[in-house]
Amino acid sequence: MMNNTSNNLLEILSPVGDTERLRAALDYGADAVYLGGQMFGMRASPQNFTSETLKTAVDLAHSQNVKVYMTCNTLPRNNEIIHFEKFLDDAKNANVDALIANDIGVLSLIKKYAPDMEIHISTQAGIVNFVTANEFYNMGAKRVVLARELSLDEIAEIRGKTPKNLDIECFVHGAMCVSFSGRCLLSSYLVDRDANRGECAQPCRWGYHLMEEKRTNEFFPVFEDQSGTYILNAKDLCMIDHIDKLAEAGVNSFKIEGRAKSAYYVSVITNAYRKAMDVYKANPNDFKLPQWIHDEVFKVSHRAYCSGFFFGHPKDCQYYENSGYIREYDVVAVIDKCENGMIHASQRNKFFKGDEIEILTHIGEPITIIADELFNEKGEPIETANHATMKFMIKSDMIFPNNAIMRIKK
Fold first, then answer.
1. In 3D, which of 29, 35, 23, 36 has the Cα closest to residue 11?
2. How far is CA 347 from the centre of its chain?
3. pTM of the predicted model, to two decimals?
4. What is d(CA 102, CA 99) in angstroms, rounded to the nearest whole number?
5. Looking at the domain covering 329-409, what would its CATH class be?
6. Superfamily assignment of 7-178+234-306 in CATH?
7. b/e for 344-374, b at 16 or more Cβ within 10 A?
8. What was the pLDDT predicted at 1?
9. Tens digits of per-residue pLDDT, 41-93?
């Protein structure tokens, strides 16, 4: 493998589904974020951004020196493509830093109507070799988001045989698709929700049985399990322990999946990769990830983890037992301010006086406190914070930044 020529090129790229998630990414150290508008994005379920909220979002990100990349990586039909020029106008007016495209026709329209716009080629394009990467570069791409099916050695070869000013981006964390680079027909065929237009119903996560044609309505498990078999269900990708290997292979941008996931997920995972990257940059020749950073990725709702294709053919990357998530922590509050020996916070989930609470900030390791003295916003002692979004106080001499997250182990 080759060494990356400059640590300054290494970027933590976080998913943003709405303004709340944007603030989470900014608070916890993203170098750049990616988001979608009301059309042409591969995630239809998040709130996404209107032309008005997009401009506000980009201004906020730029005020903190964070770049904004906007998705237009669906495969638009004839009746949609006529709206693309308006989409481009909104992107230009908002000053987004780049557009993420997949379709060659879309790419041509970007070059025609927004010739100064930076172009990133989506993972949906399925780039698996240096020839394709070079051709996209010749067509005007500044960055390629490589297919998730590549090994580190293959990425290193692509890096070595492409121009140095062509950025290489890879997904390093989050849900994986059972189909090649997300190009799947299952959802469209089964429930008329097209995965290639951002509407995937995730049928790969469903449990399946067999039915023999002459025994209608008699269902048989693929193996002996009453709940059926989740034959297509992939584990989640997690490369937090391998930041150094990704950088050495030539990856510039470390992309976190999850535009449809919670602000808490964005906060925790962005923070973990930010801290891991900082550790790597401080000592790239002897990368040792602190245990607390490794542990953070297990404190969000997640499926079992694996390393995908990065180390060759995936081993043990399917999960056959169920499609559920592992969730060991609950967010109980977000800190509004700290003053006069009190933590002022807004409740998110019920907890009790005397509970052990872990507080996550963007500064360092999580800190544990005990809610020995709990008060409502009037300063009256209470036994529990049990009303949604209620304001409350905990006595503490410690000072935490605004928007720090309070959570408890379930």
1. 29
2. 25
3. 0.88
4. 10
5. mainly beta
6. Aldolase class I (3.20.20.70)
7. bbbbbeebebebebbbbbbeeebeebebeeb
8. 47
9. 666 666 789 989 999 999 999 999 999 999 998 888 899 899 999 999 999 99
